[in-house]
Input
Amino acid sequence: MLDLKGKVAVVTGGASGVGLALVRLLGQEGMKVAVADIDPNALDTAVAELKGAGVEAIGVKADVTKQDSMDAAAETVYGAFGAVHLLFNNAGVGLGEAQRRIWTLPEKDWNWGFAVNVMGIVHGIRAFVPRMLDGGEEGMVINTSSANGGLFALPATPIYAATKAAVTALTETLQFQFLMDKTKLRAAVLFPGPHVVNTRIMASNRVRPAEFSDGTEKAAAYNNMRELAEASGLKMQLTEPEEVAEFALASVKSDRFWMFPESDAHNAILRNRVENIIARGDLPIPNLGI
Output
């Protein structure tokens, strides 16, 4: 999809982080933008900024964990724009699980992580893809995964890694089905990076709904990854959300399925993983040089 001007994009989690960087960039490309987010204040701010920059934009309050909410979002978007060409299923959460063992993690933590990171994408697909198919136009569904889990599992974050592994498998299957049905739609899986992305995903625990909470969750100690790095004295190289958005846009224009930034460290981990699978060998802890 080389010509995006006048086309319509939907971005879930679009009022902050990578989502906000995406809607800004897509707006600059001349696209009509539907910003979907659960935070009404952030949503209003994002849409006001876009409109102030001359972008044709609407805000849609949407809870990706609820199918009826995403169905209503689709109804709103199609009522406003009549079509959708790019669907970024981008909303995601992190959990307070770092360095904890799988058998110690509460069931509600698992439910919360999968409700947003996996079922949020399923709900987005179910709400928008049938309408996109009926429209008969070229389009793309881009699902946000992570190298952590989506390509190889890191031991410190078992819930997050498991959800992102599911996103990769789900997106591969979606692309296979689009091809099998000879549709004009394509799927793609986005791996933000190549370094840790400087977002507020650690703070997502602060807005956890009551149904996914047992009251024991702790607020994140830091607002973003840069604060964590500085407080820990780490010389952590970070990727900014704007870099992710630029890479994602370039990948859309190049019609890539694997939207995976080049990284020697990641390539080495992947190569070692695949070689061990083929050899039916050991499962070494990844050596992170990222």
User: Anything to note?
Assistant: The chain has one domain: 8-263.
